[in-house]
Amino acid sequence: MSRRGAQVIVLAHDSTYLRDVRQVFSKKKNDNYNAPRTSTELQLKRPSSNNSMLLAADLDRECDSTYFCHYRRLRLFVFGESEDGALVEHIVAAKTVRPLVEGYLHRRFPGRVPEKPLGAVIVEINQSTAPDVLLHAKSLVPELSESNGWAIGLHQDTQLNYAGQSPDPHEAVAFALELNSCQ
């Protein structure tokens, strides 16, 4: 229908489906009359209890994995760019360090890195021997241990009355830059 110059409206709750529809739609740039085919993604938002509005939607961002959200947030922090109109604070960036490292290890060694806290993964890496693929991560252990030691206080909030750790902004920048250079 869109190639015949007809307007097509697709409504769905599934952002991934809508992104895929857009991708298929964009494969042919012009319709049968050589007019450009365009798409506009909108999202129904309710900023207040009384009103609904159609606002631009970012389907790519809506479909981002948790890993990529952490990565984007850290990059925005490193480069002093804003997310949703505000700069990423050092505390937010610091809390992305450990999950980003864990996600990186899961992607680098798929099926081999257990769903355990980073400290347990480091122990498993240290205990690896040939032909285990984790042997290739042994050179990363000093940096992984340093990152884990620094970030562990940011993620131990499951205990009642846990005060937590407030990261130093300069340390957050240093760890963010280190991770950014590795990615």
Give the overall pLDDT as a whole number.
Answer: 83
Shape: elongated
Q: Which structural class should the secondary elements be placed in?
A: mainly alpha
Unreliable residue stretches: none
Strand content: 5-15%
Helix/strand order, N-terminal first: HEEHHEEHHHH
Task: Estimate nothing, just give the exact number of structural domains.
Answer: 2
**Compute the gyration radius: what is it?**
22 Å
Oligomer: single chain
Continuous helix count: 7
* Helix percentage range: 40-55%
State the total count of DSSP E strands. 4
Order of strands, widest sheet: 1-2
Largest sheet: 2 strands, antiparallel
The first-to-last residue Cα distance is 42 Å
Task: Outline the structure in words.
The protein has 183 residues and is mainly alpha-helical. The chain has two domains: 2-62, no CATH class; 66-182. The protein is 45% helix and 7% strand. It contains seven helices and four strands, in the order H-E-E-H-H-E-E-H-H-H-H. The chain has helices spanning 15-26, 59-62, 66-78, 90-108, 118-127, 141-151, 169-182, and strands at residues 42-45, 53-56, 82-83, 86-87. The strands form two sheets. It has a two-stranded antiparallel sheet with strand order 1-2. Strand 1 (42-45) and strand 2 form a beta hairpin. Helix 3 crosses helix 4. The longest helix has 19 residues, at 90-108. It is elongated, with a radius of gyration of 22 Å. The relative contact order is 0.10.
